[in-house]
Design goal:
It contains 16 helices and 32 strands. With 581 residues, the protein is an alpha/beta fold. It has a ten-stranded mixed sheet, sandwiched between helices. A five-stranded mixed sheet has the order 28-29-30-31-32, sandwiched between helices. It has a four-stranded antiparallel sheet with strand order 10-11-20-19. Strand 25 and strand 26 form a beta hairpin. About 1% of the residues have low confidence. It has three domains: 332 residues, Rossmann fold; 112 residues, no CATH class; 111 residues, no CATH class.
Length: 581
């Protein structure tokens, strides 16, 4: 390349850089990738159940999951087991305050670390990009944050989820938790960002309200209502709504209404009344005039005739003149607000102490707050994920919401087992799991009062790693290892979680009225033996057969009851995609 060509090329690159700087709001990410992300290129995660922590009460109850381990690994597993299957995600990530609340590559990020925001952004980006793929197209994600990273998080989420999918930034009043002091103002709030995956169809923007019985003092077959607005309360004149200038004739004795089109649209005046209807006992009613302006009815005539009996009232005003009024119904709902107040002291700290018997965790979220978050998704059978589960408030709230409205929601909690600053032992084993167990089975609070349990199932897993040498080209030996170790992960994918048999040839799980089987070998005779065993059960069955490639056995062994899937290639493909290979 000549000097002139080189200079021209450099000038073009500089112009592109200037354009990017001008037109885009940028984020600076940490250059050194996380250790756990690098580790995933040579070791892939699977799940191993901790049987002694299982709470298997009844097949009729939802199967809830708790996954102990680094949440990047847990999210990687869930991208195989639950891709596009999660309705709602809530997370309360580290706020990066510089006070030993955020660890990057096994080291606390201090306040004086010049790259602390870049490290936090890289940490969050790695997890949020995996979380996005777990959400259904109508899924929601809520993220709690404070002023330390709120601005960066908003830009990051716009990048990942799309600026058009931002819904609200709620302000959470944390006065009951205490206030952060500064040299100028006292901070008593934090934030909760809400994004959708792609549509707002599932957002419940209403909240329950108490009915004012003094206001809503009338009742019909549809419930309570008040008589407020007149049927001609529209603000624009009849001249702009000429198709709403009909005359209503109402017979009070028989409760019947008829209409006549008596408005002259050219002259802008009403004509004579229909004397035939008047003689039959019908009273003519026309929309009123205000300050010399003739107003129309609120509805067109066709809607009036179809809806007047259920939504309108005919009654005399103070002057004794018959008029028409709307029924203002008591819905018990009002639009929710972006400012929320929750008692974190009593429904966070004190509640957790009541359940565990002592303080073991700093700053748990308010249970009422989490119930509110869950209520914002209108699916009562939603799958809810929290991959910064901490003390387990999200799982507790899911159980409470099911108790309140008879829902069938289930939760997935992901948390590590690091030591907790607020108490002894790891977070998973000494805080999160004991809390959920107590809520399911029931417990006695600090006053020795019995709190009745909320029955549900809980299956406890830990992430484990399988050596694969290199993700971009997994050797045959590693494919065999993955197949032998992936059984519980596949069982989670199929939601059939009880292992009933395992030998050198196969592994079988059962649950929720279906079977899952993993066949480890290439021997067709033994495979035929397994298929015969499965068919005797006469249950819907997912059969995962080891193969070196894809779709080798689907046509050969699928039947009315048996669905054949490949292993391990689809698992490897998921992990390749995660690592952007």
């Amino acid at each position: 390349m000549t000097d002139n060509n080189l200079q021209k090329k450099m000038a073009e690159l500089e112009a592109q850089i200037r354009k990017l700087k001008k037109n885009n709001l940028g984020l600076v990410f940490e250059d050194k990738q996380e250790d756990v992300v690098e580790q995933s290129k040579t070791q892939v995660p699977v799940l191993k159940e901790v049987i002694e922590n299982r709470l298997d009460l009844d097949e009729a109850y939802p199967n809830n999951l708790m996954i102990e381990g680094d949440n990047y690994l847990a999210l990687s597993v869930l991208n195989y087991t639950h891709k596009k299957s999660i309705d709602l995600i809530y997370i309360d990530p580290p706020y990066n305050t510089g006070s030993h609340d955020f660890i990057y590559n096994d080291k606390y990020v201090d306040l004086d670390d010049g790259f602390r925001h870049s490290k936090w952004l890289s940490f969050m980006y790695n997890r949020l990009r995996l979380a996005k793929d777990l959400l259904k197209d109508d899924g929601l994600i809520f993220i709690s944050i404070d002023d330390n990273e709120q601005a960066h998080l908003r830009v990051l989420c716009d990048k990942i989820f799309g600026e058009e999918n931002f819904v609200f930034q709620f302000v959470i009043d944390k006065t009951a938790q205490g206030a952060n002091q500064s040299a100028t103002f006292k901070q008593t709030h934090e934030y909760c960002l809400l994004y959708t995956k792609g549509t707002q169809d599932k957002i419940n923007s209403d909240t329950d309200t108490e009915t004012d019985n003094k206001k809503y003092k009338f009742r019909d077959e549809r419930g309570l209502y008040a008589i407020t607005n007149a049927f001609d309360s529209i603000n624009s004149p009849l001249s702009a709504n000429k198709n709403r200038g009909y005359t209503v004739y109402y017979n009070e004795k028989i409760g019947d209404a008829q209409i006549r089109d008596e408005y002259d649209r050219e002259k802008g005046i009403f004509g004579n009344f229909d004397q035939g209807l008047v003689k039959k006992g019908y009273t003519p009613i026309r929309p009123g005039t205000r300050k010399g302006i003739q107003y129309p009815w609120n509805w067109v005539s066709t809607r009036f005739l179809s809806d007047y009996k259920k939504d309108l009232v005919f009654m005399k005003n103070r002057k004794g003149k018959l008029g028409i009024y709307h029924k203002n119904r008591a819905t018990g709902k009002t639009k929710d607000t972006t400012l929320k107040r929750f008692d974190t002291r009593n429904f966070g700290n004190q509640m957790l102490v009541d359940i565990l018997g002592e303080k073991k965790f700093d700053y748990p979220k308010s249970l009422d707050m989490m119930k509110w978050v869950i209520s914002k998704h209108n699916n009562a059978s939603a799958t809810v994920l929290d991959f910064f589960a901490g003390s387990g408030t999200t799982g507790h709230a899911v159980l409470e919401m099911n108790k309140i409205d008879g829902g069938n929601r289930k939760f997935i909690l992901c948390t590590n087992n690091e030591n907790n600053n607020g108490g002894n032992g790891g977070i998973a084993e000494s805080v999160c799991y004991p809390r959920i167990k107590a809520v399911i089975n029931g417990y006695k609070n600090k006053k020795s009062e019995k709190v009745v349990g909320i029955p549900s199932n809980l299956f406890y897993y830990q992430t484990d790693l399988v050596d694969i040498e290199q993700i971009h080209k997994v050797p045959d030996e590693a494919k065999i290892r993955i197949t032998y170790e992936a059984g519980e992960m596949i069982a989670v994918r199929e939601d059939a979680l009880n292992e009933v048999e395992k030998n050198d040839w196969w592994q079988i799980f059962e649950g929720k009225g279906r079977l899952v089987a993993i066949y480890f070998k290439e021997d067709k005779a033994k495979l035929a033996e397994l298929i015969a065993k499965l068919e005797k059960k006469n249950l819907p069955t997912a059969l995962y057969i080891f193969s070196w490639g894809k779709n080798e056995y689907k046509g050969e062994y699928s039947s009315a009851n048996i669905r054949v899937e490949d292993i391990p290639e689809p698992i490897i493909e998921v992990y390749k995609e995660i690592n952007r290979i």
